Amino acid sequence: MLSAKSLFQEILDNDESFRLFCSIAASGESQGGWENARIAALVPESERALAPKITRHGADEDKHGRIFNALMKKRGLEPVPVPPETDYTMLLEQHGIGLAHEKLKSEEPLTVQDIVTYLSHSRVTEQRASEQMDLLRKHFADHPDLGRAVRMISGDEDNHLAYCHEELLRFAARGHGRAIQRTLRECALAEIRIYRDVSLAVMDHMGRLLDWPRPKAAVLAAGIHAVYAWERLAGWRRMVSLRMPERRDALGGPATSAPEFA
Question: Exposure winner among 59, 65, 149, 227, fewest CB in 10 A?
């Protein structure tokens, strides 16, 4: 029976597919680490209190990249180049989700509106990350090789999502509510389309590596399109709601270190 668990287990059991999966994940996390580090450095003076939390967010993302690289190294594998069509983070930036890299590479301080935009975009993408890691934690939390990594990354992503909710509510209370809701909606509708395209591209590469028969590949593609149809109809709304999280000040402390993988 085709299920999320059996599909990922198949990817995990094959060195080439596992290497591609980890390479894609490590690249995206490392890119997110760089982006957050630059945003922390360019935070406007009026919002400097946010800088340590943004720095913590970036440090977590860097840590996740190191974890995925360590998982490959443990199996004697080297990273592979990430196919452009599977590069979720790069495609988000190309479609205007997140702050433009040109802006982040300059030394010009960001504006308050830039920070609101960053938090709104992060709220959408961290929803996706939290859900994906929750799925992996459900099936692989006790896995002898992946368990510690999955549990740690999943907890971090939940913290990132909580932080976005709390900070966006703070900015909404200061009069940015309308801009936040407009940005969240635009970002969510763009993200679900990019996620569909990336998912199709990743499954195409995995299918060739794992020699999937055409009917299996077709079923997986149909499933991806079905998820997109649901998200386009109504599922995107879960990405734009705001509520005060149970985890308050989720990024208020130092980042935790990555576990060792012997």
Answer: 227
Whether the model clears a pTM of 0.85, i.e. scores above it, the answer is: yes
What's the CA gap between 103 and 244, in Å, rounded? 30
Tokens of 246: 């149970």
CA torsion angle 48 51 53 56 (round to 10)? -160
106/38 Cα distance (integer angstroms): 9
- The torsion of the CA quartet 202, 207, 208, 214, rounded to 10 degrees, works out to -130
The dihedral built from the CA positions of residue 224, 228, 229 and 231, taken in this order, carries a sign that is positive
For the chain, the C-alpha Rg in angstroms (whole number) is 18
User: Among the residues of 43-111, which ranges form H helices?
Assistant: 51-74, 88-94, 101-105
